[in-house]
Amino acid sequence: MHRFALCLAFIVILSGSTHAFAQDHASHAAAGAAPADAPPTLEIVWPPANATVPLSADAEGAIGVVVKSNFRLLPAGQCGDDPQCGHVHMKIDPDGDSCNIPGLTYNSMNSDFGGDLIEARFGHCPSPTGPHVIGILLADDTHQPILVDGQPVTALVPITTQRP
């Protein structure tokens, strides 16, 4: 039930600040697009749920988050007219704003390079180590959430972070 509440909170947060929740970073190109009639899917494949993950030793305290989607994940602005294309926005502890990059409403995104890898920067959290939830959102070329039945396509995974 707690996970459902976090998912709902993530959707509410994103619905209220979608445009501002979109502007910056991450990684490389993903495989194949979904058939035109397939609803979009989004999943966090690494880290797995409830994993304990070491943070990078630098101030960013970053980890790589690998996502999977049946959409092509390209840099923002590169999808053209392809309705089966987008990129990912990521927020750590999506039920609040404490882990956002200062002045922004997100922690990271893969809109610069597209692809299935995004960097979660726990160094922006008041407490980088300990229990956290990684939330991701599938967005279109203009950083708007991709919707299914009026709801954004999202995925959540709870993890625990620690210093190496």
Structural class, judged by helices and strands?
mainly beta
Cα separation of the termini? 31 Å
What is the tally of helical segments? Answer: 1
Query: What is the architecture at the second tier of CATH?
Result: Sandwich
The proportion of residues in beta strands is: 25-35%
* CATH topology tier name: Immunoglobulin-like
CATH superfamily: Immunoglobulins
Question: What's the story with the biggest beta sheet?
Answer: 6 strands, mixed
Shape: elongated
Mean pLDDT comes to: 80
Uncertain regions spanning at least 5 consecutive residues: 1-33
CATH class descriptor name: Mainly Beta
Number of extended strands: 11
Overall radius of gyration: 15 Å
Compute the number of structural domains: 1
Helix and strand run: HEEEEEEEEEEE
Task: Specify the helix fraction band.
Answer: under 10%
In a nutshell, what does this entry contain?
This protein has one helix and eleven strands.
